[in-house]
Amino acid sequence: MRLFWELTKLAFQRQLTYRAATLAGLATNFFFGLLRAAVLVALYGVQTQVAGMTKTDAIAYTGISQAAIAYLSLFGWYDVMNSVYTGEVATDLLKPMHYFTFWLGQDLGRAAANLLLRGVTIMAFYAIVFRISIPHEWQQWLALILALGLSWLISFSWRFLINLASFWTPNALGIGRFAFILSWFLSGFMMPLRFFPDWFVRLCFLTPFPYTINAIVEIYLGLLTGTDLVYILLGQVIWILALIGIIQVILRAGVRRLVILGG
């Protein structure tokens, strides 16, 4: 456990050294967030509420989804894939830590740094520019914090699973890009899931993606309460367990193939 937290701390500190990249990413996220907010406001027109979301909720949604980009690595994460192609995977597998846990610790530090430096900062800017609503009840904050942690676990597990394709193909970048683009639509990142037809929403909830962005947004906005809130948190836990179980099976097969091929 101590080694895990040391890895997390080092990854966190490494993110803090990229000041220029952080500022550039922050400015980009905020700029495109403003554009997305303007588009949604235009779509609302004279309507004050659509699918249970007010115009203020829609603006807050753009802020939350933009704030989550770096935290959840929504636009791509190929670290495991690159380690396989460079051969570093051989030394990583020899470390006194399970391969999945080794990468989990590193990504936790990266995610925590981006949540603080970019996520919280973007939401602070939004609160100043748009005067968006902020949760006031401690129960809502508790559920939001829990959902944030669980959504990261789902995101990391999915990203790690996609990266394992590198054990079987000399270039899995195309697979990774397709997987990330798919997640944008099914997670509610491109547009709130409440705006889509019921059949599409049901299809989305057959995947782990709505339990990331969509869950965070609806908990923050107070759209999920009571049993609905419990079900979404329980769904996050179930998907985490399912993804980790699949990862263990595929990882064993991938390592076996690597050894047989002389890696």
Number of helix segments?
11
Number of strands: 2
**Strand order, biggest sheet?**
1-2
Radius of gyration: 19 Å
**Apparent shape:** globular
Mean pLDDT: 90
Total number of domains: 1
The H-and-E topology, N to C, reads as HHEEHHHHHHHHH
% residues in beta strands: under 5%
How far apart the termini lie comes to 28 Å
Largest sheet: 2 strands, antiparallel
Give the uncertain stretches in residue-range form: none
Output the structural class.
mainly alpha
Secondary structure: helix percent: over 70%
Write the layout of secondary structure elements.
Blueprint: H1 2-16, H2 19-44, E1 49-50, E2 53-54, H3 55-72, H4 79-86, H5 89-94, H6 99-129, H7 138-163, H8 173-186, H9 198-204, H10 213-220, H11 226-260
Antiparallel strand pairs: 1-2
Care to give the gist of this entry?
The protein is mainly α. Helices cover 74% and strands 2% of the residues.
Note down, in words, how this protein is organized.
The chain is mostly helical and 263 residues long. It has one domain (2-260). 74% of the residues lie in helices and 2% in strands. It is built from eleven helices and two strands. It has helices at 2-16, 19-44, 55-72, 79-86, 89-94, 99-129, 138-163, 173-186, 198-204, 213-220, 226-260; strands at residues 49-50, 53-54. Strands 1-2 form a two-stranded antiparallel ribbon. The longest helix has 35 residues, at 226-260. It is globular, with a radius of gyration of 19 Å. The mean pLDDT is 90.
